[in-house]
Amino acid sequence: MYFQRLKDLREDMDMNQTQIAELLNTKQTVYSRYERGFQTIPVEHLITLADFYNVSTDYILGRTNAKEVNK
């Protein structure tokens, strides 16, 4: 599954793939595969990114267009 929102969120923060990969403690090439949909993103990484970007996992997954996290 291709995750355009991962790329959009990253670019909105003016960050590169290497910086996000470091946040996830993984390699840039692995993170790039997440964005392009060539590799399944682990749940732990999905949660970390949702927390980092302050959006819901459903937003990243394209299940909703609401960015806000319900608290």
Topology:
Elements: H1 4-12, H2 17-24, H3 28-36, H4 43-53, H5 57-61
Helix pairs in contact: 2-3
Describe, in plain words, how this protein is organized in 3D:
The structure is a single chain. The protein has 71 residues and is an all-alpha fold. The chain has helices spanning 4-12, 17-24, 28-36, 43-53, 57-61. Helices cover 59% and strands 0% of the residues. α2 (17-24) crosses α3. The longest helix is centred in the last third of the chain and has 11 residues, at 43-53.
Overall residue-averaged pLDDT value? 93
Q: Count the strands?
A: 0
Distance between the termini: 28 Å
H/E element order: HHHHH
Low-confidence stretches: none
* Biggest sheet record: none
**Which geometry do the CA atoms define?**
globular
What share of residues is helical? 55-70%
Q: Tell me the fraction of residues in β-strands, as a range.
A: under 5%
Compact summary:
The chain is mainly alpha-helical and 71 residues long. Helices cover 59% and strands 0% of the residues.
Keywords:
single chain, globular, 71 residues, mainly alpha
